[in-house]
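Incident review: delayed structure delivery

Summary: a single-chain prediction request sat in the queue longer than the usual turnaround. Root cause was a stuck worker, restarted by the on-call engineer. No data loss occurred. The affected request and its eventual output are reproduced below so the record is complete for anyone auditing the incident later.

Affected input:
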Amino acid sequence: MTRKLTKRRAAPEQDKMIADALRDVGRPVSAYELIEELRDKASLAPQTVYRSLDRLIADGQAHRLESINAFVACCHPSHDGAAVFAICNDCGTVTEFAEPAAVDRLRAWARKSKFAVETMTLELRGRCRDCTASAQT
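Output delivered after worker restart:
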């Protein structure tokens, strides 16, 4: 039985490939969906993708959406340690936006309460403009 040899990619090359795939897909995806998306380009194990995603998140290039257990490419150059997302329950679109006043108030509460914030991701769940308009017609 002959075994197909695969070239092992360096972490930065792999991270770039996964970051590009996240941007190209343009919607929240699981690690397994990323593996499927990249199937023609590379053979990736789940733990390899999760390690890359961890590095991309740490580097500010991606975010994990806890409520839907998915990953998205970062749309903002700087979050100052916080990200805010609106997630449509109907069509699944995700909009990333800045809301400095809300983030500042939460940080102030944390300081006052002596709570050490490591990361902050706010997720708003509801219905996007398009789905709201469709439901009204």
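Verification: Helices lie at 11-25, 31-37, 46-58, 100-112, 129-136.
Action items: add queue-age alerting; document worker restart procedure.
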